[in-house]
Amino acid sequence: MTSISPLSSWNSTASRASAATPHRTQAPPPAATPSTIVALSPESVNDGTPAASVKPPMVWESATRDKVSEAMTKSFSSYAFGGRFSGLGAAMLGQAKLGNYNFSQAMRQPPPSTTPNIYAASGIAPGSLHGNGEDRVALSITTRSGVEVKLSLDSQGDGLAVNMTTSGDLSDAETSALGELAKGFQEAIDGMGQSTPKLKLEGLMQFDQKVLGSVQLHAQVKVRGEPESIQTLDFQADGAQRKVSFSGEAGSLDLKVDASALNTLGSRERQAKALDSYMKQFDQAASRGHGDAGLMAMLKDGFTALHSNTAAPQAATDSPETGKWRLAAEDKSILTGLADFSASVSQAVKFSNPMRSTEKDGFNYEVSQKTEQTGASQDARSLRQQQQSKLSASFHQTLVPGVPLRLTANTESQNYTYHQIEDTASSDAQVAYKDGKMVKASLRQEGSQSEHVMKYFLGKLESDKSTPGNYSVLRDLLPVLGPYKTGELGMTPEKKAEQRQQAMLTLSDEVLLQSYAGQTISLWQADLLPEEGAAAAV
C-alpha cells in the first residue's frame, strides 16, 4: 500500500540530494587473494525493498491544500468509480458555499521507478487529466442572473482531477444555493458508482428555482468487466422542463417531464397519489414482462425525482396560472395532477437459445401523458388529458419452478416455455364549456393484454397458445360534474356541496390510467355502453 505524504512535507531538493548519494560497499584493496567485484542491486540501494514496489511521490497540479485536495488524497486509493469520487462532489460545492468557486486541482501517481532517483516525475503533467478521464462527471449550473458555474471530475488509473469555474461573480444567495446542492450532487455521483447503477437525482431536483435557473449533469463510467462497456447518464432540469437519459449494458431509459403548465398541476397529495399509482403499474409491467430489476428501479427513481419540486398550484384568480386557462375544480377532477411526461425503457436484447436463434429475450415499456387546452375564450374552453402505456416483452421460462434454465445445443436442455407479451392501455378524459357552462364531460379507458406461450419438451413443441384480453369503458361525466343534477331536490346547499366534493374526489382516483384494471372494470359495469359490454367482459 502506498503512503501519500502531506504536500507540505514533500521536498524535491531533499529527495534529489538523498538520491544522489546512495550507500556504497567499498571493495577491499588488492591483496594475496584475488580481488572481488561487488555489484549494487536495487534492493541494496532501497534498504532491501524490491525496485518494482518503489513508487515516486504523488505529483500535484497545485500546492494548495484544502478540503477538496484532502478528499482526493483519501479517495485515490480506490480504483472503482464510486470510490474515486467519494465525497469529492460534496467537497467541491462545499467550497463554493465558502466563496471559493474558481479552482483546479489534479494529482497523478508516476509509474514505479527501477532506480532510486525521481527526476522523471517532473515530466508528468497532472493537469492533462482534465477532460480526459476514463470516468468523468460534469455539472453545469446557471443562475437566474446568467452566471454559469461548471464543475468537472476526471479519473483514470494513475490520476484524479477536479475543476470548478464561474463566468462571473456570484451573490451570497447564489453561493448559498450552490452549497445546498452539495449533498444531492454527491448522491447522484454515488448512485452511478454502484455495481448496479441507480438514479439518485431527487437532491439535485431540489434546487432553489428563485435563485438558480437550470441544472445539468453528465456522467460517463467505464465498466471494467468482460467485455468492457460504457454507461452514461444525462440529466437536465429548469423551472419547467426536466429530462434524464441513461444508457448501459442492461439497456437504456429516457424520461421527460413538462411542468410548464402550472394550472394543470394538482395538490401535493394529489400528485403523491398519482405517483403511487404509476409505481404500481411499473411493478406490474416489470413482473408481467420479466423486466430487468435494475432498469425498472431506475425508471421509478427517475420518474419520482423529475416530478418533484413542482410549483404548488396558485389560488383561483381572475388571471390564469401558467397555462392557457384558469381551470375550475371540476376541470381538475379529470386530471391526474401530474405534469405531462413521456417515459421509455428498452432492455438490451439477448438470444439465449442456441437451438432457436429467432427467440429473443427483450423488454420494451412506454408510458406517457399529454394535456391539451383549447378554445376561443375562458367561457368556451376545452380540456383533454390522454394517458397511454405499451408493453412488448419476450422471455424464456423453466418448466420446473426454482430450477435455473440453461439452454444449450443439446435437445435434453430444451425444456421451457417461450412467452411473448403485447399489452396496451389508454385513458382519455375531456371536458368542454359553452357560454361558461359545461356541455361535455367524458372518460374513456381501454386496454388489451395478449400473451403467446409456446411450450417445448426435449426440443419438441408440445403446445402453442394465445390468450387475449380486452376491456373498454366509456363514462358520461356530466351527471357528476354538470351544473344540474337529478336527485338534489330538497337538499341543502351545504349537502349539495359536500356530495359534489365527494364525487369529484372519487372521480380523481378513477381517471388514473389502469394498465391492468382488475376490479376497476367490474365497478364500472353500469356505465358501459350496450355495444361495449361484451368487449369488457372478455
Outline:
Helix content is 24%, strand content 31%. With 538 residues, the chain is α+β, with helices and mostly antiparallel strands. A 15-stranded antiparallel beta sheet has the order 1-2-5-4-3-6-7-8-9-10-11-12-13-14-15.
What is the H-and-E element order? HHEHHHEEEEHHHEEEEHHHEEEEEEHHHH
Strand order of the largest sheet: 1-2-5-4-3-6-7-8-9-10-11-12-13-14-15
Class by SSE composition: alpha+beta
Whole-number average pLDDT? Answer: 83
**Count of DSSP-assigned helices:** 15
CA(first)-CA(last) distance? 68 Å
Report the β-strand fraction as a percent range.
25-35%
Q: So what's the oligomer here?
A: single chain
Supply the key terms.
alpha+beta, disordered C terminus, 15 helices, 538 residues, 15 strands, 15-stranded antiparallel beta sheet, single chain
Task: Describe the overall structure.
- The chain is an alpha+beta fold.
- It has helices at residues 12-20, 42-45, 67-75, 81-84, 88-97, 172-179, 182-192, 202-205, 268-289, 293-306, 329-332, 478-481, 493-510, 519-523, 533-537; strands at residues 59-60, 103-108, 135-143, 148-156, 159-166, 212-223, 229-238, 241-247, 251-258, 340-347, 362-375, 381-398, 416-434, 437-457, 460-476.
- It has a 15-stranded antiparallel beta sheet with strand order 1-2-5-4-3-6-7-8-9-10-11-12-13-14-15.
- The radius of gyration is 33 Å and the shape is flat.
- Residues 1-49, 114-123 and 519-538 have low confidence and may be disordered.
